[in-house]
Amino acid sequence: MAKKRPQTKAKRPQNTGGAGAAGADGHIPVVGAREPCPCGSGRRYKACHGRAAAHAVTELVQRPFEGLPGECDWIALRELVPAATVELTLKEGLPEGVPSVTLATVLPMAWPALRRDDGSVLLGLQNDTASGDISRDLADTLQRALVAEPGTPVQGRRAPAEAARLQDLIDPEGAFEPVVHTGFEFWVPDPQNATAEVAASLERANAAAIPTVKLQGVNAAYWCETPDKNHLRWVMPHAEEQLLDALARLHAAGQSALGEGTRLVGSFRAHGLTVPVWDLPSSVSAEDIEKPAAEFAERLATALASDAPLTPDERRARGGLTNRQVTLS
What we know:
The chain is α+β, with helices and mostly antiparallel strands. It is built from 8 helices and 12 strands. A 6-stranded mixed beta sheet has the order 5-3-4-2-1-6, covered by helices on one side.
């Protein structure tokens, strides 16, 4: 995972010099750090417009998927789920020659995106990004994939500071319905005829994939199987402090488990939201946990509605939960 960068407020560079090589709209193209700035100021780019550009691309956006349909599922697919796809709905509709746009957790050879032979687009979510705004980087990759030659992958790059974000491209009213797969056969329409390189990548990915199932009765909760025990990882949309208080109330009251042998063990922080994690016995399947999860959701709603001060036991429970937080991003 990329390290966190200091959050700064990026400003659009202003044309402070002559016309130089700037475009008609005043946009200053990116050049080498030691080259003369295209604005015509006579200074090197890194000391002129490059300074603002550097701030823009290091801006850390705490919740890059906020405002998108299915924000919690975006986070789960970015951080927790090995193999899944989602059909995306674009605000402007699909361009001519692009029959579909599909978000995928990961693509072969870790390509950021792929334009298939039939013109359809696959956008990879689990990739390193060049800036502190994942949404902007993904949107830039998507836009380039829509016009790429069929049959070619799209490489990552540093998106311009003024580039569109996913929130500008994706229909906020569109459905976001992840389909979790047991493997990565969705990479290629005909795995039997895949190139040796893609076939090898497919084999490696399938061998490493952890069995994962999305629960149907609650939002953004994912059961997974590991050799020693199973887990439930549940991305929740609530403010962190409010959620920790509610979890502490339930934990202190002995109501935080999901049934016999299960235990709330901590949480992840990911892209501005909190992901509580439960340990489950290896005998507990995804289907087994559906009803307990729905019942827990009702208890949590009641706890979230309380504004009473935490009791000493609840404060101790909260401290324990806080100490067992792991930041993923």
